[in-house]
Amino acid sequence: MGTLGIRTVGKVSFGTPASEQPGLHNRWHPDIPFAGTIKDGETVKIECLDWTGGQILNTDDADDVKNVDLTKVHYLSGPFEVETAAPGDLLLVEIMDVQPFQGQPWGFTGIFDRGNGGGFLDEIYPSAAKAIWDFEGIFCSSRHIPHVKFAGLIHPGILGCAPSAEVLETWNTREAKLITANKLEDRDVALPPQPINVHAGSADATLKEKIGKEGARTIPGRPEHGGNCDIKNLSRGSKVYLPVYVAGAKFSVGDLHFSQGDGEISFCGAIEMAGIITINFKVIKNGMAALGLKSPIYIPGLVEPQFGPGRYIYFEGFSVDQHGKQHYMDVTVAYRQTSLRCIEYLRRFGYSDYQIYLLLSCAPIQGHVAGIVDIPNACTTMGLPMDIFDFDISPTAALALTDGKTLDMGSCAFETGVTEGKVTNGGENSETSFGGGLTYKE
């Protein structure tokens, strides 16, 4: 490694549509052809596009976010053959480094329009919005959310090995049952295999058609192989143990993030970027049985932005929604309420709700399940690091804002002609529940 340099096993192009690049794919399926080969024990570099395939631009409007084509997303680099890997093995993936491209030192955070993707709080904040982040070394800042600067914990949002035919059938069967049971009028609870805009790497037309009919969308993570897990601590130095289900493992990676808050609450909520990830691969023979492993496990690396324990403000929420409706031990409801309390607090300093929503999605926020034992209320917390701001946001400073004077906070980007995002009631009078991540009628 030191004398020969590190080989780049997967390259991307910014001048060619993602859907035309043979080293990319946007479905999980065991038959997608290999995009390259990696030796057991080798360290390689893999280039990745951002998860939208370059649809989001470095501009001051959110037209691209509002109109993003969600059938053309999650282009992963791969799948790569790892020599000697066989079903039942574990693939030990050690992330050595993750960096943006030198010529593209920026990323974006988006709030998707409720009618096109939505997000965790889309019943309250239904408008499309965007913030562009500029990178300077390990730090990032945004013209759309001023007076904030922090170090990124750069990581991949997606990594995993291809499912076997049996595992793929398990995914499609159980998600189809959820889709069938859904009684919501305006929500997709899962996505079945969708042939539209399937990209299957270098597959020929016949195989591509088969993969379109059977292949699983890459939006959700799944317990058998991880996939789109969006765990911010899978950064430099992390070790991930991935189950192998097919010969050669067929490893894929993508959806790189410069930074992300726990929960990535706005859906496009990390600082999304294109970049290069450096990974070392080792095959552990018969590792699944040896560890009794049914899902990936990981060990975080040593790199993480550090804030003193007394330099956070923590907000708490319970499984009682904003209309006072009681939900039983619902962590999703609780974390929504935690987020809304943090938004309400930061609003007093002059930021708009949409700016705060974007910030909580991508900044180094610490989200925790605080208590799930005391019926009927689950409790969650969100820790906001005070030192990412260039002014004092402590309760003492907030109490001193009696004259209403705040800093100029500018604005995040909205669609053309829009200067302020909508804020709605999210199910007024509890006629519609906001629980369980879904909306249902009584």
UniProtKB/TrEMBL annotation:
Pfam families for the chain: FmdA_AmdA
Domain of life, per lineage: Eukaryota
Molecular function per GO: hydrolase activity, acting on carbon-nitrogen (but not peptide) bonds, in linear amides
InterPro entries per UniProt: FmdA_AmdA, FormamaseFmdA
Matching PANTHER family: FORMAMIDASE C869.04-RELATED (PTHR31891:SF1)
Protein name per its UniProtKB record: Acetamidase/Formamidase
